[in-house]
């Protein structure tokens, strides 16, 4: 966290650095705090003028929460789209490169959503929240590795048992497992809308067996819509909570 504080401009650190460091030392930092510090550092560099008023006018956590909610909404839509596309591929439709940008965009947005939405549960379950963030991050790394391998080799086929399929499906497995861990933590803390939590968990439990051929392709469509719809519900709830916080302030 001290390294993240160093990302702020020197003039900002001189004025507010000790106060920010003391605040960070009061409690453990979660993914949400890391995202908020990064956004705050970017904001500080972009608004060096009027430095004396920056602390009072900086939105900080509400801005991060709103962005995370929007990421969950857009990312949820992309996840539903991706799993529907995969179900078509299972029936023999050749999608080639078309679905890679979709799953990469969905994965990155999912990480942004997890970082922000974890603020609801972090104080009660800090270890599990970090697991719910790190596991999908590793999955996104594997999906990216599969894409880079494909771009280098030019081989867009993902036959069962191939190295490309192992990397890609391993990444998707980690993404889904991380999501269901987050849903379980959210269920326990009741921090987010219950409907979204149930949809994420149910969508994951349907999508996983369908992804590995244990259910027919229709399972990918049903599970994908549930999974993406759950994240959309969580995102809408986060945006609404953010607006209420801003009005209260």
Task: Give an overview in words.
It is a single chain. The protein is mostly helical and 249 residues long. Helices cover 78% and strands 0% of the residues. It has 10 helices and no strands. It has helices at residues 2-5, 10-25, 31-46, 54-57, 61-90, 99-117, 126-153, 163-189, 194-211, 218-248. Helix 3 (31-46) crosses helix 6 and helix 5 packs antiparallel against helix 10 (218-248). 41% of the residues are buried. Residues 49-62 have low confidence and may be disordered.
Search tags:
249 residues, mainly alpha
Task: Characterize the main sheet.
Answer: none
Whole-angstrom Rg: 20 Å
Question: How many helices?
Answer: 10
Oligomer: single chain
Series of secondary-structure elements, N-terminal to C-terminal? HHHHHHHHHH
The poorly predicted ranges are 49-62
Which bin fits the share of residues in helices?
over 70%
**Overall pLDDT level:** 77
Number of strands: 0
C-alpha geometry: globular
Distance between the termini: 27 Å
Helices and strands: which structural class?
mainly alpha
- Strand percentage lies at under 5%
